[in-house]
Amino acid sequence: MTDVAADTRPAEADPARTERMVLTGLLALPALFLTVLSLVPLLLLLQLSVAHHDEGGLWRPSLELTQYAKLLNPQFLKVAAFSISLAIGTAIVSVAIAFPAAYFISRMKRRAQVAWLVFLLSTLSLSEVLIVFSFQVLLSGAGAMVKTLMALGLMSSAHSLYPSFGAVQACLIYVVLPYIILFLYPAVSQLDDDIPAAASTMGASPVWTFLTVTTPIVRGPLLSAGLLVVIWTVGTYLTPLVLGRPQNWTIGVQISNAAMTTGDLPLAAAQAVALVCAMVGLLGLTRWLSGQKDAQA
Amino acid sequence: MTLISTLLRRGFLALVALFIAAPLIVVIGVSFNATRRMSFPPTQLSLKWYKAFFTDAEWVSSLQTSLTISALAASLAVLIALPIAYAVWRYQSRIAQALAGAGSGLFLLPGVVTALMFSAFWGVVGHVGRVENVVLSHAVILLGVPIAMLSVGFQSIDRALIEAAQTMGARDSEAFNMVVRPAMAPYILCALVYVFVLSLNEYLIAYMVAGFNVQTLPIRIFASMRSGYQPTMCVGAVLFIALGFSAFSFLAWIGDLPKLMGRHRPLEN
To answer: Nearest-CA residue of chain B relative to A26?
Structure first.
């Protein structure tokens, strides 16, 4: 009995040591998992981007910048600029739709809110592969969209609405919309209803109040949402491939083709690293922009 | 004024709902359509594509592959995320915070970049075209989701409750069982379902780490795009939608879905 008491005392006497042991036990496996499956692949990507490409899909370790030099060709820069502008366009439109939608949903009665959440979450079960397929069906010459436009007199002769830039853009907005509504939901549900109410008693219109009072409060989440959309869509592959013309193909199509078709892994890796650098730059810019606005306020 | 804004609000939400529902309606419609032509709305209803799906060994095996990969990836991701989120909350551990950051980091990279990363990784490891590649890659890439959800869950626990349990003489482990476990159960379930659904529908990473060797349902559909669509592929999608709908409805039934999705402010009925 005394032995047991003697054994437990030091552990109780030194809580810091116990805590360290508990933490080691908790975190050893996650740390190993993340090192092997996250850090190693990331370092490999960096190594690959400076490797030497041999013919036939082979590569050997090296320290050369030939792949990065290839990125400077105007063709690639054009694709990169197009991808980033497509992603930013998707971000602006999807956040502009998702923000008021999330706001209205968060103001509903519980049952309606739960129904909307289940609906939004269920749509995540539709793979992008099938979303693209549905858009093909909807936008085809005999599809529902063309019929509606003809009935409204907005279209004179039936023809397929894809491949086109508009089809790519609409499909990308569709893919991200439920995610962004769900992403913004916590932030907008926290908003206080008293402030807009006060503004409207002073005679401000609801839309004006929403834009000038409500929006600035959730500026941070809105910017983060936009950034997420840019990151998710800048490397999009399937949508532009199926619904777009070759000039609508993105950097995602380029990277996958370099890796899977041409077998030029070092070039694909260099393109991927450049893309990540661009995203980090954008992240910095967004941080700086929201910081600037905070400083003004 | 109020009437107009109510109408505008309802009209806007109806349009958003229609936009979001449209592809679901198309997929469901095509799966019940009697003809092979991809027309919408369907001309005549039929269950023949369902019969074709379940009598075709390849479609059924794709369905099984998809479900297995997603179940394993979801379990693994939640198992890894749970100790990290717990250590951040309970001990404010710096290492755990760093791991949480690293774990969320991959989710914040463009999908094509992570796909390339893992395709190169498994190539160098010399382990190409295997199911476990997809499971491990999905688990680590989607790790940000359970980390975020479980952190929200831990933050929703009232620390005063734990202190109360401890002042009443409960040990750490007892307080854990009384307070932490029941509070976290719905968040864990929610994270599992969420990762499951995301993994179920992911095709680019699965394709780039396993090629056409591991035929998940999205990859089979992706492959069939080259040879022309068959209505059969919509059957699998309808099953997935039904599965997602049931799982999230179940969550809403057993738990407080608005709270699980991050709402802090209480919501009256």
So the answer is: B83
Is the CB of A189 less than 8 angstroms away from the CB of B265?
A: yes
- Residue A35 maps to a domain: no
| Beta-bridge mates of residue A60 | A52
How many structural domains does chain A have? 1
Which residues of chain A neighbour B140 with C-beta distances below 8 Å? 33-34, 37-38
The pair of three-digit structure tokens given for residue B157, joined into one six-digit string: 């626990």
For residue A45, is it within any domain? no
Cβ of B27 within 8 Å of Cβ of A121? The answer is no
What's the fold here for domain B67-155+182-260? Answer: MetI-like fold (1.10.3720)
Q: Is the peptide bond before B41 cis (omega within 30 degrees of 0)?
A: yes
Per-residue pLDDT of B91-124, as tens digits, reads 899 999 999 999 988 888 899 999 999 999 998 8
Using DSSP's 3-state secondary structure scheme, residue B214 falls into: coil
Task: Confirm whether A211 is domain-assigned.
Answer: yes
- Is pLDDT of A13 > 80? no
ipTM of the complex: 0.91
Partner residue facing B91 (CB), from A19, A110, A138? A19
Q: Which residues of A touch B12 (CB under 8 A)?
A: 100-101, 104
Cβ-Cβ contacts under 8 Å, B30 against chain A: 137
Q: Please give the pLDDT value at position B61.
A: 93
**Burial class of residue A222 in the structure, from the number of CB atoms within 10 Å of its CB (0-12 exposed, 13-18 middle, 19+ buried):** buried
Backbone angles phi, psi at A5, to 5 degrees: -60, -40
- Asked if A129 lies within 8 A of B203 by C-beta distance, the reply is yes
**A48 neighbourhood in chain B, CB within 8 Å:** 120
Beta bridge partners of A59: A53
Judged by CB atoms closer than 8 Å, whether chains meet at B110 and A177 is answered as no
Amino acid at B139: A
**Angle A291-A293-A296 from CA coordinates, rounded to 5°:** 110
In a domain, A64, yes or no: no
Q: Do A100 and B12 touch (CB under 8 A)?
A: yes
* CB-based contact B222:B216 (threshold 8 Å): no
Query: Mutation test of the interface with chain A: which of B112, B201, B217, B227, choosing the one with the most A Cβ atoms within 10 A?
Result: B112
pLDDT tens digit sequence for B11-67: 999 999 999 999 999 889 888 888 776 666 677 888 988 999 999 999 999 999 999
**For A86-119, what is each residue's pLDDT tens digit?**
999 999 999 999 999 999 999 999 999 999 999 9
User: CATH number for the domain including A248?
Assistant: 1.10.3720.10
**Cβ separation A125–B258 shorter than 8 A:** no
So where are chain B's domains? Answer: 67-155+182-260
User: Domain range spanning residue A237?
Assistant: 73-296
